[in-house]
Design goal:
Keywords: Iron, Metal-binding, Oxidoreductase
Protein name: 2-oxoglutarate (2OG) and Fe(II)-dependent oxygenase superfamily protein
Strand content: 15-25%
Number of strands: 19
Bound molecules: 2-oxoglutaric acid, fe (ii) ion
Organism: Forsythia ovata
Radius of gyration: 19 Å
Largest sheet: 8 strands, mixed
Number of helices: 8
Structural class: alpha+beta
Strand order of the largest sheet: 2-3-15-12-17-10-7-4
GO molecular function, one term: metal ion binding
Distance between the termini: 21 Å
Helix content: 10-25%
Family: Belongs to the iron/ascorbate-dependent oxidoreductase family.
Amino acid sequence: MGEVDPAFFQTLENQPKLETTEAEGIPIIDLSSLNSSNTDAALSSLVAEIGDACKKWGFFQVINLGVPLKCREKIELVARKFFALSKEEKRKIIKDEVKPLGYYDTEHTKNVRDWREVFDFTAINPTIVPASHEPEDKELKQLINQWPQYPPELREACEEYAAELEKQAYKLLELISMSLGLPKTRLNGFFKDNNSYIRLNHYPPCPAPDLVLGLGRHKDGGALTILAQDDVGGLEVKRKTDGEWTLVKPTPNSYIVNVGDIIQVWSNDKYESVEHRVIVNSDKERFSVPFFFCPEHSTWVEPLEELINIENPAKYKTYNWGKFYANRRRSAPVITLSEAIFALPRGMQIGF
Ligand SMILES: O=C(O)CCC(=O)C(=O)O
Ligand SMILES: [Fe+2]
């Protein structure tokens, strides 16, 4: 990625301002009280903090999520080792239409190429999804993870991390459910055979950090994203109050959590899925590992009935998660996703 191909250039309005403000305001929430005292008062204050953060930012950081440090260190190490391999080696597990999991280095967001390479795998292997995006086609297929030969310990590190994150994701889901005034486990049933996946992101140093983005502006389409970032920084969140791009300063051993489009729909806009993007820098490479917590493919997503009434009617029509995702995967590299969306009404635009 030495030369900067104009395919990477952002339009003027999307070019990053490199002297961005740091998002001091993104709350850091300590989950240690969940595992220890667990008094009613401690739990309600945690739930209130989470609800406030979801409303104000759509984002929050958590410390003491419960993922063992070793487990995180292991996946970070294998990610470094994997991306350090030659292109030729990495491309042995390239993802394509037939095999949509694996390595990829020509990702586009809204038609502009991202300055990054990725490796994708699902948390449950194999994962069952619709065979096509066609609404009438009832056929299902299995997505099977592709594992590289090197480093040999990558598979185990990834599988352990996936299992751990899935476990901890329920904790966050339950807190969010409570923050919406719903029973703790109201949302859990949607995730039985979930379609969650994990991405290893590598953003190499870039000679033109003012013209390109590691990842263009987008919203996450799943329910929740739980992201581990290294100490380099680069994630920017669009602040709801004034639309400014604000950098999320790395906090050691924390996870950045954001509400995806599904929670926006379930909550009938009480919580919004907020745009974010990644800037790159000229001398440092950066790694991040998002876990996308996504429901089972058969889930029909719609505003929860407890959260709508005559004064606050449903703002979204029902859509099928599996079909929606199949459609998105099909079209993401070529056309903007708003053009591909067949089920989401009211101009809801979802990035990759
Ligand atoms: O790398 C990051 O900080 C963010 C990644 C992200 O937003 C995504 O993969 O959807
Ligand atoms: Fe994202």
